[in-house]
Amino acid sequence: MNSTRERAGLPKVSYPKKRVNVACEVCRSRKTRCDALRPSCSFCSDIGAQCVYRRPEENVRPDEPLPDAPPSSAPPQPRGTDEQDVISRLERIETLLQQATTPRERNGFAHFSYFKEAESQPVPTPPSTHDNLSILRPTHPPKFNIGYDLTGLSRLSGHQCPKDLEPLCTDTFEQQLELELDRSQDVFQGGYVGLGSLDLGASHCWQLQQFFLKDVLPWCPIIDQADCSDIVSGSVESGFNRQDLDACLTLFILAIGSFAKDSHHHADNPSMFPGIRYFRAACQIVDAERLYTNTIRYVQCQILQAFYLMYCLRPILAYEAIQKASMKVILLLQRRSRVAADSIFRQQCLRAYWTCYLIEHELQAYVPWSSQVLECFNEDMELPLSDYDEPGIYWFLAEITLRRIFSRPRNGLGWNQMFVICEPVVAQEIALQFERWHAQLPRTIKFHIDDNPDMRTLMDPHKIFLRAQYYAILATIFWPYVVRMLTVSGPPSQSGEAGSSSRGGSVPGLTAAETERFEGLARRSLEYAVLKLFAVEPLMQKRHLLLLADLTGMYCMTMLLLCAYEVYELRNIQNPSMRDAILIGWRCSKMWQSNAELKLRIDTLERLMRAKGFGPSMVQ
């Protein structure tokens, strides 16, 4: 019709689309159904987002504000170009496998430049719905300290640390590092270990292999169980005549199987660690094997070396081993022709990659840049497959998804590295994604969500771990609102919040309605922290592959609850079970105090507990 009018010399007419409802910007970005109610659709009303409708593009000038946007008394917030299109990132949280376009370059190490961007002048942008989903960035680069660090949870960006949260800023990094370096020598010392001095009998090897298959491999199934049995059988039947990578892998399996068999070993004397001689013999082979380092078997050996060191509670050593595996598996995945043609090789590489991804994320609390390289690749990385109901495969996939949801809004930065999400809409959106993640879990690993400490007993360690991690992540997501309630006057943050000199009553710088909303979010953080400690207690009695992760999360939640315990400004959100949860965290940590690094944390806990009024009979 328009072409006919053009030929007749008549002006072009833009006919309206035959569509009754036009979705708002938020629903467009999330690809959700919009009922197009005015002034705010139902979805935006539920999540508290600003609902904005746009006109047809040909009728809107570039500098014209979008219609139906409620007037804002606040001036437009300055934002760096790096923070545009945040909604697209939140959309990717749910789909996980769908590549979304963001302004940040994801090639190579481009995202490390983020810390330099904070020092540059922010570029003003027009107000939009994206402003409601903005993520606060630190005003200066975080300090990358090697060692356990909770400083990033102690304050909001642009504000000083509240006095009640100063215990989170304890600087023991150098002491932690010295302890770790001293203990690293003990694990490897002892001289040459000859294979003739080891018990390599068929029955003993079979027994240790069974412990490995039952208690270790289901946590991170890097090798198919049948393949694992074939490798061990081949090495045992040959009498370990060939000291190759298959023999090395077998020795690592025997070492870890020994720890799994003696899982109640609480002492921290490396010479007495179960399977330590198998471990040292395997290290001798893998360190000397230079001809086959660019193979998947070498990657698997390095991963198992990291597994054993995690059983030993040696995070820095475990990181060194898993990093070698990460670098090699990335190289192997670049062999695209073989990856495409060889399905077995592809699945082995994918399992190795995602195992490295999970382990590096668990070690991120100790080595801040852990997982940063792998984070560059995971958007396009396939998930591993299994052609049968393989033990642990559902847990493996669920944990991968959980980690990706949690790490994506932070661009892979450590959860304790001063990267604070301070917008209620963002926190609620991420929490919603976790609820959907839980709703879609397979029956074999699905756990019941309780809202009180008297929770259902679970017998499956995978379900226990997932439930405890679920609570811990939600507690961390909502923790910034506890910090916000304690924040007093200081320099304004990037979101334009102004502090107030008054404490008590309302939250400084917020209206009464905003105070009530923030109190609700802060209350959820403390509730989830309590639930985390009650949920994880069954896993703290003995060693398992992810005990280090459980100890890390337990100490973090215990410290957060202790800092918030009986604080006047938080009197309206105190949880009645906080005291019991703190005692659980302390008792479970005490079980592992033979570890020198953990003893440092326990001493910190006990000092703070005494300061909070826990009597000598409880803390001794």
What do you see in this structure?
Keywords: Nucleus. Residues 67-78 have a biased composition (Pro residues). One of its GO terms (molecular function) is DNA-binding transcription factor activity, RNA polymerase II-specific. Residues 59-83 are annotated as: Disordered. It holds the Pfam family Zn_clus. By secondary structure, the protein is mainly alpha-helical. It has a domain at 194-392. Helix content is 48%, strand content 0%. It is globular and about 75 Å long. The chain starts with a helix and ends in a 9-residue tail after the last helix.
Low-confidence stretches: 15-20, 56-84, 96-141, 489-505
Task: Please give the alpha-carbon distance between the first and last residues.
Answer: 88 Å
Name the helix and strand elements from N-terminus to C-terminus, one letter apiece: HHHHHHHHHHHHHHHHHHHHHH
Biggest sheet record = none
Q: Give the helix proportion (percent range).
A: 40-55%
β content, as a range?
under 5%
How many E strands? 0
Class from secondary-structure proportions = mainly alpha
How would you classify the quaternary structure? single chain
What's the gyration radius in Å? 27 Å
Number of helices: 22
Q: What does the overall shape look like? A: globular
Overall average residue pLDDT? 79
Biased composition (Pro residues): 67-78
Region (Disordered): 59-83
Keywords: Nucleus
Protein name: Zn(2)-C6 fungal-type domain-containing protein
